[in-house]
Amino acid sequence: MVTQITSFGRSGLYDWMMQRISALVLSVYSIFIIGYLVLNPDLTYEQWSGLFETTAMRIFSLLALLSVGIHSWIGLWSVSTDYIKATGVRFFFQSLCGLAMFIYVVWGVQVLWGL
Amino acid sequence: MLVSIYRYNPEKDDAPYMQDFEIELPKGKDLMVLDVLNLLKAQDPSISYRRSCREGVCGSDGMNMSGKNGLACITPVSVAAKNNKLVLRPLPGLPVVRDLVVDMAQFYKQYEKIKPFLINDNPAPAIERLQSPEEREKLDGLYECILCACCSTACPSFWWNPDKFVGPSGLLQAYRFLADSRDTATQERLSDLDDPFSVFRCHGIMNCVNVCPKGLNPTKAIGNIRTMLLQRAT
After folding, report:
1. What is the pTM of this model?
2. Chain B: residue nearest A1 by CA?
3. Tell me: the pLDDT tens digits for B132-185?
4. Contact (CB, 8 A) for B115 and B184
5. Looking at domain B105-233, does it have CATH number 3.30.365.10?
6. Sign for the pseudo-dihedral over CA of B35, B66, B157, A93
7. ipTM surpassing 0.85
8. The CATH number of domain B2-102, selected from 3.40.30.10, 3.10.20.30, 3.10.20.880, 1.10.287.3510
9. Chain B residue numbers touching A83 (CB-CB < 8 A)
10. Contacts of residue A81 in chain B, CB cutoff 8 Å?
């Protein structure tokens, strides 16, 4: 057994499951957004911002945002352990990815709530 | 026909190189790649490769033939050669000992890790541990593996992490014992596999299924291990 402590959930099964669940959330969210845009060709700013002011849409968007963070962290962590063999470089790359994902989540929350 | 062979003798060569041989194949029959190698070895006795049973049972002569892993003894030249040219290389990803001979230590280490033997602490019955025909059927497609390493050395996940990822061959054997009704160490076996590398480095690209000379399906076995882990955890 490989005891690896820097992956997302520390267990292979947990990471694998989260990767799939987040992928599912992201596909449903993408389909919803594209569907909404297709069904509302004459979309106005008021209608669009009204959509994102509803609580349900905020929950859905936050869920999608967290899914982006989790999905890309698990994915890029795997890629870096495959291809980057020098520990220092790998650690730097993983830190950079973690930081980017944190920034995106915080930034996304700001945009969603219009803070 | 032109045969291009990977040559490397660490005692003499600084670096590996490809050596071309021109060979006249007998008309009217389709030789196996191993037969061609034997003919070439008669020309140049320094060509090194492993072979034993010459009928696809021992798994010694796994090699890369024109880009695809397989057993030289059961692969016809007509299948392996492309544009009347046959390119023979050692199995990819493992250290080369000499020419087409690779060091399989890493491969066997992963095999050893999954404890490839029946674990049952109950007192042995007088004659044998019985299985129903249905229980026995579950082992079909698993026990036939001959450990030729064609699958694991075709797997990019095994190339990048041969020390951590068990590889398709080892995982097929892991499932062979997980699925065995006589084995009582199922929980311990699953616990040993639940980390981000051992099983989950498989991304299901099915290179293993594509090359297996015995027609086995390691990807399916890996899927079954994942299901067992999921059933246990949720």
Report:
1. 0.90
2. B192
3. 999 999 999 999 999 999 999 999 999 999 999 999 999 999 999 999 999 999
4. no
5. no
6. positive
7. no
8. 3.10.20.30
9. 160
10. 160-161, 197
